[in-house]
């Protein structure tokens, strides 16, 4: 085994050991009510749903204004980026990285970063729409 692989294994083992020790130390400081929420990792890996409280300016909107704002925000929930297998840049990055120039694989990392930013945009727009739909329900806009 090469020295780089051995060093990588040692670093990975050290990180796992540090994470486990942090988890055990946090476990000693928890009460029994807090221990009911047992998690392996000391942080949330995936996002949790946000409960957004609407502003007073949003509460003052009538049903038609709420519907217009939802209509304006809806295009922000669409994804215009192709997925991995339909993205021509991904195919070019893999082909060039395999045959000609290995650093071309960095394009795949950049595409992942762009996907992360786009997901953030989509999620914030969806949360705003859900807040406005909740206000529409409070105003009884769905009743005829």
List keywords for this structure.
144 residues, mainly alpha, 6 helices, 62% helix, elongated
- SSE-based structural type: mainly alpha
**H/E order of the elements?**
HHHHHH
- Overall residue-averaged pLDDT value: 78
Number of strands: 0
Query: Oligomer, anyone?
Result: single chain
Strand content: under 5%
Number of helices: 6
Poorly predicted regions: none
What level of helicity do the residues show?
A: 55-70%
Shape: elongated
Structure write-up:
With 144 residues, the chain is mainly alpha-helical. The chain is 62% helix and 0% strand. Helix 4 (63-73) runs antiparallel to helix 6.
Give me the secondary-structure topology.
Elements: H1 3-28, H2 32-35, H3 56-59, H4 63-73, H5 88-99, H6 106-138
Sum this structure up briefly:
The protein is 62% helix and 0% strand. By secondary structure, it is mainly alpha-helical.
